[in-house]
Amino acid sequence: MEGPFYLASLTFLLMLVAIYWHRAHRFHVPVMFSIIAFDIGMPFYLMMTRDWSKRLLTDGDILSFGVWMHFGLIIALFVLYTIQVIAGLKLLKATTNTNDSRIEHRMLAKGIMLARALVITTGAMLSEPGTDA
Ligand code: HEM
């Protein structure tokens, strides 16, 4: 667990910094895009480094509440990311009256931070001791 968990937690802190410095577009936008790419890459990395058929099929974890909870949260996070990127790009293009988009972007940010915190927590709960690669 350790590697991916600590790395994901670190990117969570980085996200908080990027939210704080949202006015610095050259910092905020690339950091957010990189973290989204990191989150897209994580399932592929874990699939390549873990024995998923044993865990899900042989051990029967595919029917566990924890696995479905984690999966559902990931789907929710990606849906939120999609809407957030659209709202963010709208903000970048806008020249006047960006208030509605800013409110939308800010509200989505809260949902994303909550969903991401839960994805990391449920992921940590699912990880098997000794798999720290
Ligand atoms: C990757 C695509 C994203 C783009 C293109 C983008 C772009 C922007 C822009 C242009 C602003 C306005 C900055 C200003 O006031 O001048 C902004 C603000 C902000 N962004 Fe993002 N952003 C992205 C992703 C995210 C994500 C993933 C989060 C949170 C998890 C986030 C949270 C915020 C917050 C909280 C603000 C401040 C809103 C306000 O009160 O005005 N952004 N973003």
Walk me through the structure.
With 133 residues, the protein is mainly α. The protein has one domain. Helix content is 81%, strand content 0%. It contains five helices and no strands. Helix 1 packs antiparallel against helix 2, helix 2 packs antiparallel against helix 4 and helix 4 runs antiparallel to helix 5. The longest helix has 29 residues. The model has no long low-confidence stretch (mean pLDDT 93).
Tell me the helix content: over 70%
* Strand percentage: under 5%
Head-to-tail CA distance between termini: 7 Å
Radius of gyration: 17 Å
Instruction: Describe the main β-sheet briefly.
Output: none
Which descriptors would you attach to this protein?
133 residues; mainly alpha; 5 helices; binds protoporphyrin IX containing FE
In summary, what is this structure?
The protein is mostly helical and 133 residues long.
Helix-strand layout with pairing:
Elements: H1 2-20, H2 25-49, H3 52-58, H4 65-93, H5 99-126
This protein binds protoporphyrin IX containing FE.
